[in-house]
Design brief:
By secondary structure, the chain is α/β, with parallel strands linked by helices. The protein folds into 2 domains: 219 residues, 3-Layer(aba) Sandwich (Rossmann fold); 66 residues, 2-Layer Sandwich (Alpha-Beta Plaits), CATH 3.30.70. Strands 6-7-8-3-9-10 form a 6-stranded mixed β-sheet, with helices on both faces. The chain has a 4-stranded antiparallel β-sheet with strand order 2-1-4-5, covered by helices on one side. Strands 12-13-11-14 form a 4-stranded antiparallel β-sheet, sandwiched between helices. Helix 2 packs parallel to helix 4 and helix 3 packs antiparallel against helix 4.
Length: 316
Amino acid sequence: MIQGTNAIEVSELTKSFPGVRAVDRLSFSVQKGEIFGLVGPDGAGKTTTMRILAGVMAPDSGKATVSGFDMVKNPEAAKHSLSYMPQRFGLYEELTVDENIRFYAKVFGVKGAARDERAAQLLAAAGLSEFRSRPAGKLSGGMKQKLGLVCALIHTPEVILLDEPTNGVDPVSRRDFWRILYSLLEQGVTILVTTAYLDEAERCHRIALMHEGRMLFCDTPACLKENFPGAVLSVVTGSPREISQLLAGVAGISSMTVVGDGLHLVVSDAGMTAELGAKIRGAGIAIDSIEQITPTVEDLFVEAVQGTLKGSDHEQ
């Protein structure tokens, strides 16, 4: 029962626990047919936000609607339009793949031919058709997550909430999981996903960067990168920590992050490239290269957390 152009609307949502404000006046909206990501580290407030949107936790204040239903006043009304897959989805490991699906289908009132047809479609998309008789407890971690998604989708919801669905899943299963999510867009499903994997943010249409319960920025990954102030330099080296110590406190460098086989430097001006390269080599530290690169979401997040970028509580 989605009304208007937004499938999810959140306004001034706030939730506190003893000693901590988990969600701090959070506001954002998710358009119909969009993959929207809540991105941030553990403790950012992502799971608390999802639980409120799923209707399993009440906020202290604020408003939240999903698929046109008020999740604060009457969450039960959204049952058939919404699906929520928490970090630890409740699969029954002693039951087979088919039996788990039948259980969740019964919960949502999906029966007979409609259930069987929907299950067959979802199992095929997830690559689980040949494992229908296998106990869930005998599946790999990635396969369990895909089965959880199948169960969450059995009643054809309009909106699905996924809380860190690929946490701890191998790279191949992560790729398969996202392939399934993209296929759901063709069916008009709206997806809100949380992740601590900043590379996964690139797969979302829009993302909200969260830190300590607050929103730092909300926009498309491309726009966030385009509006990144200054520049990011990649230093390929076997001695990133030595370079970090050498460049600590150098004017024009706002942050340094070890990435793979090198270091990312966020600088005020890309023109500093030659100067910094000469300084590093002059100190006797070997580097393979130093060059400007396109900023990643991780670069943006590090900068935002350090307070270099301004825009907390702002939705674009």
